Amino acid sequence: MAAIQVDGLTKRFGETVAVDDLSFTVEDGELFGLLGPNGAGKSTLINMLVTLLGPSEGTATVDGHDIVDDTAAVRNSIGIVFQEQALDEELTGAENLAFHSRLYGQSAGEREERIDEILDLVGLDDERDDPVGTYSGGMKRRLEIGRGLLHEPAVLFLDEPTSGLDPRTRRDSWEYIRRLNEEAGVSVVLTTHYIEEAEQICDRVAVVDDGEIAAIDSPGALTESIGGDVVSLELDGSTATLRDRLAAQSWVSEFSTADGGLRVTVDHGRQRIADLVRLADDAGVPVTAVDVREPNLETAFLSLTGATMAEREADEADSAASDDGEAVVGAAGGDR
Ligand SMILES: Nc1ncnc2c1ncn2[C@@H]1O[C@H](COP(=O)(O)OP(=O)(O)OP(=O)(O)O)[C@@H](O)[C@H]1O
């Protein structure tokens, strides 16, 4: 049985279509990533799957249970770690877990055994009796992830699990997430706007943009699907003639317009810079800057959506600011 089966799931907030007719499957035992910029619709999708938000249209099952008709069974089958931290800082690590174990109705014997297992799994054995207020950001996140596993869920949802952590702690957290996926045998669905996170730990990634899934595959296959390096040309003038000329070159895989220029996908991008500059000159549009990116998930996102993650987040910040009538700064994007 699939861990998650999503069929035509849609969520509207007034005019905004936050999640637009999504269908996909997460296999049992998979570490599945939803990668997209802030505002892409990842949290809305997760909130529907964990039964906190009702869909506008469509259906989904989690561990075989319907997210609308069978909410209690879905909730018993899942663990959730939200973006915002929710630990009692005055209690110790073990006490925080014990509190939740009681909420789930575990017996005293079961509780003790499970807490030991979890603290071992997330590497907090030595700090079990320290108040959580003394933990580092990474340790707190590990404890929250452990807490999500307390009742042995079939599926663990992690919403931006490493957001706000420093890069080193983020890497350490990846180890733990991978380990618990393997050792606890739990299917994991995580959202992230960190390309590297999706690339490093996910078995498969859904690239989410503007409420839709642009592609789903393994990070390696998504990267390979680009078929070359992406050369960004900043151009001073109309690109119409140059586009015609690019279309006629056998060595150009594809190209798209971008703010102030063109993005061209070619093999061996660096060796093609001179050819591209010459084509642009011949077309009467001087190149003012060149950037070459080798294939990775970042260029896959660019190739699939026509924009970088950063550009998408800036768009979202702009529209949030115009909605609020406020300045763009702090409206969206970046770590929280
Ligand atoms: N309760 C709501 N009411 C109105 N609009 C909403 C609501 N929740 C989300 N949206 C809008 O839906 C879209 C998707 O938001 P969502 O939070 O799901 O994106 P996200 O990819 O999870 O980003 P983030 O990581 O910032 O949460 C955005 O345009 C957002 O403004």
From TrEMBL:
Membrane topology of the entry: Peripheral membrane protein
SMART domains membership: AAA
Main subcellular localisation: membrane
Region (Disordered): 311-336
Keywords: ATP-binding, Cell membrane, Membrane, Nucleotide-binding, Translocase, Transport
Compartments where located: Cell membrane
The organism's place on the tree of life at top rank: Archaea
Biased composition (Acidic residues): 313-326
Pfam families: ABC_tran
GO molecular function, one term: ATP binding
Coiled coil: none
Sequence ranges assigned to domain ABC transporter in this UniProt record: 4-235
GO terms under cellular component: plasma membrane
PANTHER family named in the record: LINEARMYCIN RESISTANCE ATP-BINDING PROTEIN LNRL
NCBIfam families: drrA
UniProt name for this protein: ABC transporter ATP-binding protein
Organism annotation: Halolamina salina
